[in-house]
Fold each of these.
Amino acid sequence: MPGHSASTDTRSGAAARPRVLVVASGKGGVGKSSIAVNLGITLARRGRRVGILDGDTGLANVNILLGLRPEQGLGEVLAGECGIRDILMEGPHGLKIIPGASGIREYAELSDAHQQRLVEELANIEADFDDLLLDTAAGIGDTTLDFLAAGHQVLLVLTPEPTSLTDAFSLLKLVLRRQALDVRVIVNMVADVAEARSVFQRFANAVEKYLHTRVEFLGFVQRDESLRSAVTLQHPVALFAENDPSARPFQRLANALEDSPPQDDAPAFSRFWQRRLQPDSLAVNAHPEEDAEDSHTEAPALAAEPPAASHASEGSGSDEGVLGRLRAAFDAALDAADPGTLAATLDAMHEQYRARTGGPAIDLLALVEQLQAGPDDHAELLEGLRARLVPVNDQLEAVPAAAVKQAGDSRRPVADGPPPDFGWQGRRDEPVHGAAPARSGACVQAYDSARFGPQEALLERLRQRDDDAATLAEFLRRM
């Protein structure tokens, strides 16, 4: 394949902002880490500068798949014992590995202090990569959800197992409550493209029906004994010849990624974390050069020096002093900052408030009522508010449905409730064609044992049936 380096990347700011691909799954054992490593090698063979961050901060194993033995890992970085460049490991074709923390309970879920440390270190190396792959921990831990929200694209790995689909659905449901995602599905361990498409369609239909969003099909990886052997031998199949059947699926995945790049305005990975953490310190302008590139204007100076009047109350330690400085900083930002950037900052601060207190800082119900009473058509804005107010959705049930028109592609709230049944049997809300409705709470059976008896006995009768029944349907009707 032809080389593809940062210099040929058409995305604006690509040299300073790597494409962040978050490889995730709802459950373990679906081949997520193997896909991350093989895809990383495939991209590196094309001349791209690729790094893999082992985001499993409790049970890291990316380095094991490559036969690497790190002396230090992410645990030492988070503890402040070394910098992230000190733990970078060289893999095949220039691939760089950032080994995670393994067997250290303290880092299974990252605290705010550890997240801040990670942000500072990642900001130092992001410009070194064209692609940064995050191999996350399986499951629905807070750190995993943060990694998903911070990425530019999520590569969600599924297998045909119903448990894989159910757990992936639950993972998406939780992270979509934080923000919209660009999700590309990889179906692993399938026989062929037909099975992969079938598995994807079942999952995509459920996501669109219950989570009100869409996921895209990126590709598939067939069941392959070479992949199993490669894990044992610590020699990934992406190191085979490019025309080798075992390496071909990852060539297809790399091609598909080139055909669907992330949005040009996607922020840097470390910048997402800065925005998430900055309300604690009001240090909005931590990366002024990047803010200038994002908005073509100066970032809001919420950390500006307050007027002297605010200092008078500071010594008392009262809330009035703190709020006075906040108000003065806001007034300064309102005069100087770009409105869009200021709005994004205020939105992030409100989310931080809600996360800490469990409730909104603004009376959102009163705001909706005010919009309803206004003379203008606020239907689109009302629908946007509904999509974001999952924590107070019960309050909004009082808003008449007629007051809110359907607003294009606006996201609707992700409702609570159990995930759909991804097994092969029908569900209560999707009865088998021609079957009687199931009793409440019961599952519709694909095989009617009460009518036909044990399946083994029916099979024997089918083998011994006479020829006077023209069709199988006629034979069954006679039973």
Note: The two ends are 61 Å apart (CA to CA).
Amino acid sequence: MLAMFLLQGLWVTSRQTLSDRDYQYARCGRETWERPSSVPGYYTSCGNIHDGILAYRLAGLPLTLNFLAERGMDRFRAPEDRMVQTGGEIGTWELRHQMTHVLLLERLPFLFAGCVLGGCIWWVTRRLYGNWGGYTALALYCFCPAILRGCLSPNTEVLAALGVYGGVYTSVGVAHAMQGPVAKWRPRIVLLTVVLGVAAAAHIAALPVAALLGLALMIWVAEGHRSQALPIVLAASLGALLLVLVCYGFSADAFSYVFRSAAGFLWFSTAAAKRFYSTLGEAGITVAVVSAIFLYLGIRRSRYFGNTAPLFCAVALILLVMTGAPGSPWIWSIPFWLTFAGGVFADAFEGPRGRMALAAAGAIVALQAILCVMSLPGMA
């Protein structure tokens, strides 16, 4: 299924053209790896990146590696055929006309992040709900146009969604480990620190969101150890901020600008939810989520922690809007909605009308797959 997700991404990429935004991420992303900005007082020529440094680094990394490989090959080329002619640098013109596959190289890290997020959804749902619940959630994810769009341009959204989803469920994993020996806590706390670091580096607003949701679920699960939940989350959050500082190349001024900007400001609105669930391309997911909500309310055995936790997180996230920087927090809610749907459907599959529920879920997934494929360029 993830291979089908990747093929859809590569299909769309083959029909895209480079935009000004692509050049901005390519230029400034390469600057984060290769050299500091030539503009005094700024981290890159794009200015001080205050919302998410990780997207710039990921967009620039394949291009930097490609550039280093081409410069290494220059040693075996005639002087007039070398890519880097003078000064050891490459400008925008050379980036477009001499470096091959720029558009693909720039999108590969985001497609990979999308595949990792799909793998996380599969691991969580299969572990919680079994194979059928995992397959349902993953199939809906792999044919979600909103996720595909997020993976097909340099941006922070899918990276932040990965950090938030991973942070929440890693927090739950830490809470479960707290019921056992202390030695089993440490690896999961280290993993929580890394995942929260991904969230913070993707978008600074994602760190408090992931930390607060994770803390709430930890307090819910960690019976007998609830007093230790807050210190663990605080320690992991401080470690995450240290990882963000590392992503800024230990530049204290650029790092401090994150906290002097308004990038972390959030508010609440239902506009994003109305727009997402009224889009034709997401009709299958809309039917799946609405059906899951009715089943959740109507079937007592579906109302347990495994289903309630993703529903709680999804509702909280889809109501968030950015007020200080561009962003789409509603995308962060999609993995939780699909996890919730997979869990409720898995309960229905085991009910007295399991075959009917399985056929209905299959029809919903098929509808979403058709709508998603038809929305791809060149398929309408």
Note: Residues 2-105 form one domain.
